[in-house]
Specification:
- The structure is a single chain.
- Strands 1-2-3-4-7-6-5 form a seven-stranded mixed sheet, with helices on both faces.
- The model has no long low-confidence stretch (mean pLDDT 82).
- It is built from 16 helices and seven strands.
- The longest helix has 21 residues, at 76-96.
- It is globular and about 60 Å long.
- It folds into two domains: 5-164, no CATH class; 232-296, no CATH class.
- The chain has helices spanning 5-18, 51-54, 57-60, 76-96, 117-122, 159-162, 167-179, 185-203, 209-217, 219-231, 234-240, 243-258, 263-266, 269-272, 277-286, 289-296; strands at residues 22-30, 33-43, 65-70, 107-112, 126-127, 135-137, 144-148.
- 52% of the residues lie in helices and 14% in strands.
Length: 300
């Protein structure tokens, strides 16, 4: 998959949601294959996720997992490519230590908004009554579940997965996100990522019809983000154009993105101030804390 705005969005979303409970590796290389795993997750079994906060994602975090989201309609070649990645990862684990029996082999989760009935039938993917509507398990030996995102029920447990869907399903998920309390850190995080997705599309050289539709779906998140940052003085700072106002604007964005500014984040402000408002806004919304500090932190 190409590094389009959607790819950046889904990687950042999974990193933010899953990293407290395990190791999250985006773009993990597969030995013997030029393609990369979109997200590989290795759980910290001693830290249990809260099902009330993460809903259906809890089932994904029960064991090592390969996460492969698709924005476009899923086709046979996509499934075959994902299965090849799964088999090569499992073979690599066995090569590293052949004497160890892997009691919890990795599981593949293919997440797609559009999945045809024909494809599900051809790959013998049957509904999983335990997980509910939208979840289809392939044969037990394949350790693979296809998630039909646009079929997921409109309930809080599926919110984070439905943000990856399309059309009305995604729009409903965004509306639900905006209804969460403003103090909810996950609301703040997801809102920032959605705004970053919108900005990335706008900055792209070419925008296709689907991306224009996404811009419309994300318009409400951008308005909400503007409203919140205005309250924190961002708009006033940008209009004044002074050094102090620019520092204030960057500070507001950092607080919006991370909740608080510690010493490490304070250290990135001077170098960010040298950028244009579009550039520092994009870097803050797209980057993790570690990425910001590594790129813009003051060197010892």
């Amino acid at each position: 998959m190409t590094a389009k705005p959607f790819d950046r969005f889904n990687k950042r979303l999974f990193q933010e949601l899953l990293s407290p409970f395990g190791q999250v590796i985006p773009n993990m290389a597969v030995i013997g294959d030029e393609r990369m795993i979109n997200i590989f997750f290795a759980p910290h079994y001693q830290i249990l996720p809260n099902e009330e906060e993460l809903g259906s994602l809890v089932r994904i975090m029960e064991r090592p997992a390969l996460l492969e989201p698709y924005r476009s309609a899923l086709v046979d070649d996509d499934v075959q490519t994902c299965l090849r990645k799964l088999f090569m990862v499992f073979a690599d684990l066995q090569r590293q230590n052949p004497t160890v029996i892997v009691t919890a082999p990795p599981k593949l989760w293919i997440l797609a908004a559009e999945v045809s009935d024909r494809l599900l039938q051809d790959f013998k993917a049957d509904p999983n009554p335990e997980l509910g509507d939208g979840f289809y398990d392939m044969g037990k030996g394949l350790q693979t579940t296809i998630v039909r995102l646009n079929e997921l029920p409109n309930v809080p447990e599926t919110l984070w997965l439905r943000l990856l869907a399309k059309g009305r399903v995604q729009e409903d998920a965004i509306e639900e996100l905006l209804l969460l309390p403003e103090s909810d850190p996950k609301r703040r995080m997801a809102l920032g990522l959605l705004v970053s997705w919108r900005i990335n599309i706008e900055l792209a050289d070419q925008v296709d019809i689907e991306e224009r539709q996404i811009l419309m779906a994300l318009s409400q998140t951008y308005l909400e983000w503007e409203k919140q940052t205005k309250r924190e003085g961002l708009e006033q700072g940008l209009e004044q154009g002074s050094v102090l106002a620019t520092r204030s604007a960057i500070g507001s964005l950092l607080r919006f993105r991370f909740g608080a500014i510690d010493t490490a984040l304070e250290g990135v402000v001077p170098r960010l101030m040298a950028l244009s408002s579009d550039d520092y806004t994009r870097f803050i919304l797209e980057s993790s804390k570690d990425e910001l500090t590594q790129r813009f932190g003051i060197e010892d």
